[in-house]
Hints:
The protein has 11 helices and 12 strands. It is of the alpha/beta class. The protein has a 10-stranded mixed sheet with strand order 1-2-3-4-7-8-9-10-11-12. The chain has a two-stranded antiparallel ribbon with strand order 5-6. Iron/sulfur cluster (SF4) binds at residues 105, 107-109, 112, 114-115, 151-152, 184, 330.
Amino acid sequence: MNKFQRLALFLSQAGQPDYRLTQITRSIFVQKEINFAKMFFLPQQLREKLEKEFGFWLSIEVIKKDYSSQVKKILFSLSDNSRIEAVRMTYRDWQSVCLSSQVGCPLACAFCATGKMGLVRDLTTDEILDQLLFFHLEEEGADTVSFMGMGEPLLNDNLFSALEVITDDRFFNISQRKINVSTVGILPNLKRLIDNFPSINIALSLNSPFPKQRQLLMPSEEKFPLAKIFPILNYHIRTNRRKVFLSYILLSGVNDTAQHLSALIALIRSQGGEAYLYHVNLISFHPVAGLAFKSSSPRQTDFFKSQLARSGIGVTKRRSLGLSFRGACGQLTA
Ligand code: SF4
């Protein structure tokens, strides 16, 4: 049970009227006051009981902040001293927050700093929510929330209860359309996500149109092959009419050849009536110590972009605001 559910249960078991929960959540989400001792609209006895029961509302502690004008990278310490990172990026007129879902990650993608750590553990629902709450309390919250930090979100069942609180209009009240989940394609949780949160944005980490090569880059391909992932994504497009994003980290000489480009176009076209809602995000690779990969040249990246566009496939070159802090996708190592 997450702490918002525990709070609701505690209040009802204490015989408090229904409006108490609203008063407290307004304090947290509107007045940005999380200290029960300072919630003076509550009877003193209740304030004391809440303080005793819940202590300090944030379960994670900030141990380091790295700020540039557009990127804020926060290192958090958890109750067992594990560390995770979350990043807030500012693009012109909107704020995007990137959250972690696990300490480390078990999937060992060859190009990923987090994958080198292995899995330490899943984050609890509260630890996922508190990363977002931290940014909300410190500033203006987030226009969009992305699960692209440490870990594979669909390997952690707590993602689902976190999404319930994030989208709940009593709490964070963020629309599903403003939430992005980036995944290698974990089944059956991908289907569960689609069925429970049909408007959420899904980004599949693709990175190669060739299954054998994808398996070398992303060992998860063996258990969760593209051949099983695409039918689920097509089901999502058919049922919910939502765009699906295909993330493609361009690695020089590895997956940026003309053969890769043709196979990528063919793979998307082979999705038939659903092909038009696939959108490719081309992502530049950030150097990771100990990994031999290099980012594709700007010229090759532009070539991929123009050829995909000429083939009628939606494509975006993702700006990499995390670069100066090594805080972009797959670069969070805590
Ligand atoms: S890219 Fe994502 S899934 Fe792969 S190892 Fe890194 S965090 Fe895990």
